Amino acid sequence: MLKAKPEILQSGLQESFLIRAFGHEAFFAPYHYHPEYELTYIVHGKGKRYVGNRLDDFSDGDFVLIGPNQPHCWKLDQPDIKASAVVIQFTHDFLGADFFDKPEFANINALLKESQAGLSFLHPKMMTKYILRLRKSEGVERVLHFLDLLNELCRQKYETIDIGALENNADSQNDSNRINVVMAYIVENFKNDISLDDVANVANLTPNAFCKYFKKLTRKTFVEMLVQYRMNFAVQQLLHTDDTISAIALASGFNDMSYFYKTFRGKMGMSPLAYRKQFME
């Protein structure tokens, strides 16, 4: 059974933060989390991006900042196609415990706090020169270029990926770890049959205790969250494939076609076919 596990990052003795280039093998990483911030720039690739409770498409130029312990992964639509990314990982205190608390860094500090929900930057092409410059530099120059990058990100437009993360009601690190494991299970299995007993077992709780726990931390029931993932996937398939409605429903985890149509109409205000047609006109 797949579970989200903490990723342990090892920086070199001469590095205060990590910057690495990855090939397509990085896109096979499981849904995971770690205590570092992460900036991910997709050089080339197309697929699905999972951050917290959100499922979105990604393509060339996707640029995202993710806060500590926010579960995430990128999955390619076609695993055999070449893909690449640049990833920067750093801790809040990589330049000292109180560095970003200085008044001169108020904007960066605010950006880092908001990144707990995940931030997707809307004009990533403007940032490529900063990434290239950062990769070519070293020593003090690299640190200065990184601060320049963070400062520029404060000026860029972005959207919050998983707004629910800003309202997380976890009372402890154990709660955070447990909900991450649960969300990892949902992300990896929402296309399949998942029972309440299955997911409660993942959380090591009774079904009744799990329902209360899950609602407290996510403000959604388990079924609502499961349907959200399935609906998001179905909508993306409607817009980006020519598959039949029934094939999309089944691929998204809806085995009951009447339930799929009823749910889709309730969420989107129209049938799946009408939704697809409005984007084809």
TrEMBL record:
InterPro entries found in the cross-reference section: Cupin_2 (IPR013096), Homeodomain-like_sf (IPR009057), HTH_AraC (IPR018060), RmlC-like_jellyroll (IPR014710), RmlC_Cupin_sf (IPR011051), Tscrpt_reg_AraC-type_HTH (IPR020449)
Keyword match Plastid: no
UniProt xrefs under SUPFAM superfamilies: Homeodomain-like (SSF46689), RmlC-like cupins (SSF51182)
HTH araC/xylS-type domain mapped to chain residues: 180-278
SMART domains: HTH_ARAC
Keyword Transport set for record: no
Keyword vocabulary terms for this entry: DNA-binding, Transcription, Transcription regulation
Pfam family, one: HTH_18
Gene Ontology MF: a single term: DNA-binding transcription factor activity
Alphabetized PANTHER family for the sequence: ARAC-FAMILY TRANSCRIPTIONAL REGULATOR (PTHR43280), TRANSCRIPTIONAL REGULATOR MTLR (PTHR43280:SF27)
The protein's name: Helix-turn-helix domain-containing protein
